[in-house]
Each structure stands twice: as C-alpha cells, then as structure tokens.
Specification:
Radius of gyration: 23 Å
CATH superfamily of the largest domain: Zn peptidases
Strand order of the largest sheet: 1-2-6-3-7-19
Number of domains: 2
CATH topology of the largest domain: Aminopeptidase
CATH class of the largest domain: Alpha Beta
Structural class: alpha/beta
Number of strands: 21
C-alpha cells in the first residue's frame, strides 16, 4: 500500500480524530479549554508517529504544540506545517442546528466550531505524515509542526515564540494553516496574506448621559465620532490619510497576469452575500485586484447611547468605533498608527483617543520561488486543477515567519469558501479533507525530491 492508498483506506480514522478535536472546546478569546486542547493535539501527533512536545513562553500565554520527524532519505530539507488549535467563540448558540462542539457528521459534512478553521486543516497535515510513516517507514523530508493557540485572537506571542525557538523552528518552507477551495472545487494556492491594524477610536463629551432636550447646549459624542470617521476614506474605499500608501510597491507584470487569470464569478459572490454591487462599483478585474492587494478601512463596530427596544431620548456621554485596516506589503503597522493619529489631529480631531489592539504586517512569497511550483503540482494532481493567488484577502501572522525564519510561506488546504468559518454551523467537507491529505503528502514528496 502506498501513502495515497493509505489515505483512502483510513478516512474513518481521520474523521474520528477530527471529531475528537472538535469536541474539545478551545476558545482563545474566552480562555476555554486551551490547555486541554494543546495536550490533546500533542497526543494526536504521537498517535501518528510524530515526536511532539509543548513549548511555553510564560504563565498566561497559550502554549505551542511542536512536532518533528526527521527524514532518513533527505535530512537536508525541512518542511514546516503551521496551524492553530484555538477556535472562534461559538455564540450565538441558538443559530446552530446541533451543539457547536458536537462534531456531528451529516453525509459529506462534519459540523462544529473548528471543523474547518483550523482543526480540519490540522488533521490533514497530521494524517499525511502518518500515511507516509506507516507505508514507507519514513518521510520524504524533515517535517516540523508549529501549532499555536492564539491565532484567533491575533497571535500576540507568535513573534516571541519564533525568536525564542528560532533554531528549533528553522525550515526551508512553510505550508500555511489553511487554504480556500472555490465553488468549483479548485484549491487556491495562496502566496501571501494582508496585514491588519485594529484600533478603537473614542471620544467623551460629558460626565453622564443627559436629556436630549439639552442637545442645543451639550455636544453629542456620536456626531463628533461620525465626523471624524468620515474623514478616513472616500465612498469608493480609498483611504484619505496622508501618506497611507507611500511605501506601497505596485503589482508586477507577473502578479497582474496571475490576477487576470484567477477565476472570480461576481454573480455567485453577490448572491452568496446578498449584495447588489461592490464597493466603488468595481468591475471584475478591479474586484480581483482589490481582494489581492487593496488596503481597507472598515468600521467593525460603533457604539454610543441607547440602542434597546423603544425610545429613550438621551444624549450619550461617549462614543466608540472599532476600525480595522487591512494592510498590504510595505505598510508598517506602527508607522500607519502614527499617520492615523497625525491625520486626526491635523483635521481638528485631537480629542479623539486612539487605542491600538493589534498590528500585523503583510507578507508575500514571490511566484517564481521553486516552492510555488512544487505546491501547485501537488494540488493539481490531488484536486485535478488549482489556482495561483498572489495574496489572500485575509490576515494571519505570516510576516514574522518570513521576517524571522526567512521562510517562504504558501497556503493550501481544504477550506471550502462557503464553509461558514467563524459563523454558526461551520463545517468541513469530507471529500476535501481527503484530497487535501493526499495533497499534503504529495507536497512533502515534491519538496523532498527536488
């Protein structure tokens, strides 16, 4: 039996292990089950023949589960799998058809928080290594696993982990923690991720709420905040903060060629999200370019005054807005924060307080890197066809892996694009888990033989 056949024969075991992982809650935002899940992941690695240990920084910081297996045939090349065992909160519970941590299987789908993001993806990596070990008594190259427990809350300590364990984590290439599969079952081979800057803007105008009849005398902080937020971007989405795009490098011709070839069905996208048009009325090409390399300024939430049932005529005392900016390569989060503060001050809003929650730079792997063709070849063989993507529209801690470990990073995986990640009734598709597990083995094989 070869590794590919092993995957086919042992899918029931893969599904069972995934259900076991789902049934262990691991909500980092609520510090729920983190230690227990880390120990479970370590146990699953060992079950598959992978040496594993739990690494720590300090008390209160979620541990990293580290796994390693050395290759006999090619000890000179090392491939790393980066994943995470923490998940998003499951609320609102009443919108789930089944308990969110039940791991229920219904036909081709396995439901539960983390089914896809990221426990389903993690299982495909583990089982690919297991398939190789149990059929060849070896792996095509050295394999390392770095599995963190804070990804869903911003990976606040991953950079410290990478610095502390730089030698232990050294590698020649990283397979990222996920990869989208489109509506036509084609995997997206992603070469990068956008960065993120998440801030809170707030303003306080009075010591307490007051009767709205006093609005002729007392300033309303909600209006003040709205006026400030409106200066950040135009209706088409362009950010108006001075020098926001100063360091940005334009797409290369090769990037533009890849973007142009990438399939994108605007009608399917609009139907899925129930929208009539795109921001700025973008055409198809501009929409694709924006997903890959467009910076954003988004109001994630805004709060002030009374928002309950019925009427309450009050002037709120304060107002807050949570803003997330998606950053593109060469945008430095710390520098962008300074530009935001300077912008508010120069526009007369120096009373608006800025609180920074998280900053993460963008990262990309050059499409000409040999690692890219190795991954794409494996994806083509396992899925029948795959699509190269210059950069994912989302954000993850890819930049420190590139910056500290000097590793090219590529995302490829089983995440069906409409699998409801971060939402109620999240699910993983069994057929995609199988194809992705085979793909992971083929990536290892390509990586170890070239």
């Amino acid at each position: 039996m070869n590794p590919i056949q092993y995957v086919d024969v042992n899918m029931d075991d893969l599904i069972s292990d995934l259900q076991t992982l789902i049934r262990q809650p691991s909500v980092s935002a609520q510090n729920q089950g983190i230690e227990q899940c880390a120990k479970l992941v370590k146990k699953l690695l060992k079950k598959s023949g992978i040496n594993s240990e739990i690494l720590r920084l300090k008390k209160g910081v979620s541990p990293i589960v580290y796994g390693e297996i050395k290759s006999k045939q090619n000890p000179a090349k090392t491939l790393m799998f980066y994943n995470h065992y923490d998940v998003q909160p499951a609320e609102p519970f009443d919108l789930w058809d089944d308990p969110p941590f039940s791991g229920v299987r219904k036909g081709n789908k396995i439901f539960g928080r983390g089914a896809t993001d990221d426990k389903g993806e993690l299982i495909t990596r583990i089982k690919a290594v297991e398939a190789s070990l149990n059929t060849t008594d070896d792996v095509p190259c050295n394999i390392k696993f770095v599995i963190e427990g804070e990804e869903e809350t911003g990976s606040a300590h991953i950079e410290n982990y990478l610095k502390k364990y730089r030698h232990k984590f050294s590698n020649d290439g990283v397979i990222w923690e996920f990869g989208y599969v489109d509506a036509k079952n084609r995997p997206i081979v992603g070469l990068g991720m956008k960065g993120l800057l998440f801030v809170e803007l707030s303003v306080k105008e009075s010591t307490r709420e007051s009767h709205s009849s006093l609005a002729v005398l007392i300033k309303n902080p909600a209006w003040r905040l709205i006026d400030a937020v409106k200066t950040l971007r135009d209706p088409g989405g362009k950010i108006l903060i001075k020098d926001w795009y100063k360091e940005v490098v334009p797409f290369t011709k090769k990037d533009l060629d890849l973007i142009d070839k990438e399939p994108f069905d605007p009608s399917v996208f609009k139907k899925e999200f129930g929208i009539q048009s795109f921001t700025g009325d973008k055409n198809v090409l501009d929409a694709k370019k924006a997903l890959v390399g467009g910076a954003t300024c988004n109001i994630a939430g805004i709060s002030s005054g009374y928002a309950g049932e019925g009427a309450k005529t009050v002037i709120p005392s304060e107002a807050t807005a949570k803003i997330d900016f998606r950053l593109i390569p060469k945008m430095n989060p710390k520098k962008q924060v300074m530009r935001l503060k300077k912008h508010l001050k120069s526009n007369g809003f120096d009373d608006i307080k800025v609180r920074v929650f998280h900053g993460e730079a963008a990262a990309r792997t050059d499409s000409s890197n040999p690692f890219v063709s190795q991954v794409k070849d494996a994806a083509d063989k396992s899925f029948g066809n795959s699509i190269l993507n210059v950069s994912n529209a989302g954000t993850g801690p890819m930049h420190p892996f590139v910056n500290i470990l000097k590793s090219p990073c590529i995302s490829i995986g089983s995440t069906y694009m409409f699998s409801r990640i971060h939402s109620p009734n999240e699910f993983a598709r069994v057929d995609l888990l199988k194809k992705t597990t085979k793909c992971m083995y083929l990536i290892m094989k390509n990586f170890g033989t070239i």
